[in-house]
């Protein structure tokens, strides 16, 4: 085993000759290198030392970058797919692959004109092709650039399997979801700690006869109000979204708003929840969804909307549907139109190589046959280079 | 018995070709599903193998069973264990449990590996297949007990076991232990992974059962001569 590792490292060092020159020319990496990677630690084909998404470029496509542990806890308190969280726990590090779709959206975000209405980006692709993680990469970029991130990690959770449904206090024809709203507010507070004490609310909100939030109080107080008073938490979420939307384009506000929604097709699809008389609830009748739909319109400035559409987990949609038109439906497409569609394909050959080497490095491929050429060919055949399928197959090998 | 009769069989072609039937005329040959056997060139074959190839041209061959494949990752022991775990013919569920068990074993070990210091890393076994095989080997009993009636009384007589019987007993004990003696609300793959890990470390209920069987056999050593085979 030790001998294998030694020969593997030698192989990597020989292969690195070409990559060393290209890496050294990039400006951001030079600063990182000054911090010192000591000589015995070889560069890897599949890893990059660049942990700042702003400095990622085409040279880094296919390579894994490590999300700093502090960022993982803050930016993604509930943002990552379940199997990825287990992988992070097992490997003791959070590594994301730099891929072309995420790089494209990041480059557009760098060039956004904040005086124009917000542009909508939609990641789409077959099941398991890496849309959620591309979204997480983009969210990490927005966080490192100091934007205010409104991350809804899974819109489907708001539309399926809701145990507690209260009639809304604001509008009697709508329904509240207190548990989901409180959970989301908590995560929002963790991610955007720094903005809570800087942004002031412009309107007076009355929650009950005795509770109200004055004009000019801080955003943090609004969020705390929502977390402590569970009954009005959905309305707090709505108020928060409205405030941020109104304030984001104004000249006096000093923040940029990034709205990141995973599985945005849940907003216009069908829902799983039933009313007491066993009739289905339309997503329009849920407060959280109603407010989120207002955010999806491009009538505000000073930020961007990044979303994914996914069939996995969506209610009553055929498995073969993966294009935005099919998944959003007529209403959704009319609302989201015009948007920038970004296709997320399966791994290319280079990316597959990179993933394979990463798993080998982390000692995840343990079957002796999986390290041979025949085993690799079989993995390519079985998974069709689909990231999720590859992960599932490798997990039992 | 089939092997001894094979020499006496006359050349015979079946009138009706059998599919999905496990009782074959001893004339039928076993199927060869491993890829490496077919990639050998003419020069590498020994005399026996050349004879086998001649036979295969003439004689009919049994149909291969369902779980058998020529994948590089195929393991007959794992396949047998999955079949034994299967209930009501639900092979997909049994296979899913098996893959989840191997994954859980690997996850726990790899997590320990990444958090351990350099000296401890050498001792941690991360390969779930190695753990699985070693655990089953640790559970295999060496002698078994047979019920022999002599002079109106039934005696438990210690008896040598064939390899297949030992493997079967180890797997059977592992599965029954996990099904019955664990907490109701845990998943089968969690129970299995805990029990396999314990058996790998030579602790746990299945190892205890094996030792109890050995003790009974040792206690009944006096009746060993009652065995006539």
TrEMBL record, chain A:
One GO-annotated biological process of the protein: apoptotic process
Primary location recorded for the protein, binned into one broad class: mitochondrion
Protein name per UniProt: Small ribosomal subunit protein mS29
GO terms for MF: structural constituent of ribosome
InterPro entries, A to Z: Ribosomal_mS29 (IPR019368), Ribosomal_mS29_met (IPR008092)
Annotated Gene Ontology cellular component terms: mitochondrial small ribosomal subunit
UniProt keyword list: Mitochondrion, Ribonucleoprotein, Ribosomal protein, Transit peptide
Pfam families per record: DAP3 (PF10236)
Highest taxon, organism lineage: Eukaryota
Family: Belongs to the mitochondrion-specific ribosomal protein mS29 family.
Cellular compartments annotated: Mitochondrion
Automatic annotation (TrEMBL), chain B:
UniProt keyword annotation of Zinc present: no
Pfam families recorded: Ribosomal_S7
Any one of the GO BP annotations: translation
Main localization (coarse): mitochondrion
Keyword entries, A-Z: Mitochondrion, Ribonucleoprotein, Ribosomal protein, Transit peptide
Transmembrane parts of this sequence: none
Cited SUPFAM superfamilies: Ribosomal protein S7
InterPro entries: Ribosomal_uS7 (IPR000235), Ribosomal_uS7_dom (IPR023798), Ribosomal_uS7_dom_sf (IPR036823)
Gene3D superfamilies assigned: Ribosomal protein S7 domain
Domain Small ribosomal subunit protein uS7: 68-221
Database matches in CDD domains: uS7_Mitochondria_Mammalian
GO cellular component, one term: mitochondrial small ribosomal subunit
Subcellular location: Mitochondrion
Family: Belongs to the universal ribosomal protein uS7 family.
Record protein name field: Small ribosomal subunit protein uS7m
Species whose genome carries this gene: Lates calcarifer (Barramundi)
């Amino acid at each position: 085993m030790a001998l294998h590792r030694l020969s593997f490292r030698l192989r990597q060092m020989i292969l690195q000759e070409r990559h060393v020159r290209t890496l050294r020319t990039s400006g951001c990496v030079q600063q990182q290198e000054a911090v010192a990677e000591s000589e015995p630690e070889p560069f890897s084909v599949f890893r990059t030392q660049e942990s700042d998404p702003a400095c990622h470029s085409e040279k880094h496509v296919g390579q894994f970058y490590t999300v700093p542990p502090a960022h993982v806890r803050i930016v993604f308190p509930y943002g990552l797919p379940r199997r990825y969280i287990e992988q992070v726990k097992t490997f003791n590090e959070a590594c994301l692959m730099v891929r072309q779709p995420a790089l494209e959206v990041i480059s557009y975000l760098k060039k956004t004109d904040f005086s124009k209405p917000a542009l909508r980006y939609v990641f789409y692709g077959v099941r398991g092709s890496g849309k959620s993680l591309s979204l997480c990469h983009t969210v990490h970029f927005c966080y490192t650039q100091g934007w205010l991130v409104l991350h809804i990690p899974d819109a489907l959770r708001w539309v399926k399997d809701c145990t507690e449904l209260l009639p809304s206090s604001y509008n009697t024809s709508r329904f509240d979801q207190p548990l989901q709203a409180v959970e989301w507010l908590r995560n929002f507070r963790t991610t955007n700690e720094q903005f809570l004490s800087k942004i002031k609310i412009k309107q007076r909100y009355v929650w009950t006869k005795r509770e109200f939030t004055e004009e000019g109080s801080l955003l943090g107080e609004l969020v705390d109000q929502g977390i402590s008073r569970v009954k009005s938490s959905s309305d707090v979420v709505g108020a928060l979204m409205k405030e941020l939307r109104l304030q984001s384009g104004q000249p006096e506000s000093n923040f940029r708003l990034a709205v990141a929604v995973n599985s945005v097709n849940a907003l216009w699809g069908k829902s799983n929840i039933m009313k007491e008389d066993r009739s289905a609830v339309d997503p329009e009748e849920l407060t959280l969804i109603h407010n989120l739909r207002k955010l999806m319109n491009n009538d505000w400035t000073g930020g961007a909307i990044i979303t994914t559409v996914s069939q996995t987990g969506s209610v009553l949609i055929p498995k073969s549907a993966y294009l935005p038109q099919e998944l959003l439906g007529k209403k959704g497409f009319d609302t989201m139109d015009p948007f920038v569609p970004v296709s997320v394909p399966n791994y290319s050959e280079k990316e597959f190589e990179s993933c394979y080497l990463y798993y080998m490095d982390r000692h995840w491929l343990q079957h002796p046959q999986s390290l041979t050429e025949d085993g690799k060919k079989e993995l390519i055949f079985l998974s069709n280079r689909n990231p999720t399928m590859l992960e599932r197959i490798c997990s039992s090998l | 018995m089939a092997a001894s009769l094979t020499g006496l069989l006359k050349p015979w072609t079946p009138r009706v070709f059998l599919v999905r039937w496990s009782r074959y005329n001893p004339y039928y040959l076993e199927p060869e599903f491993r890829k490496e056997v077919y990639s050998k060139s003419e020069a590498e074959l020994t005399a026996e193998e050349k004879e086998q190839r001649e036979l295969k041209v003439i004689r009919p061959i049994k149909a291969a069973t369902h779980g058998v494949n020529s994948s590089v990752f195929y393991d007959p022991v794992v396949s047998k264990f999955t079949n034994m775990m299967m209930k009501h013919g639900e092979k997909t569920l049994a296979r899913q449990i098996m893959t989840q068990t191997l994954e859980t074993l690997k996850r726990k070990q790899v997590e320990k590996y990444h958090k351990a210091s350099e000296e401890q890393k050498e001792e941690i076994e991360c390969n779930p297949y190695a753990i699985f095989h070693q655990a089953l080997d640790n559970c295999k009993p060496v002698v078994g007990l047979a019920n022999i009636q002599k002079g109106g009384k039934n005696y438990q007589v210690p008896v040598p076991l064939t390899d297949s019987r030992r493997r079967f007993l180890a797997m059977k004990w592992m599965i029954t232990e996990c099904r019955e003696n664990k907490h109701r609300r845990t998943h089968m793959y969690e129970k299995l992974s805990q029990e396999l890990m314990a058996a790998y470390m030579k602790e746990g209920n299945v190892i205890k059962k094996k030792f109890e069987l050995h003790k009974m056999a040792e206690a009944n050593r006096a009746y060993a001569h009652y065995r006539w085979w």
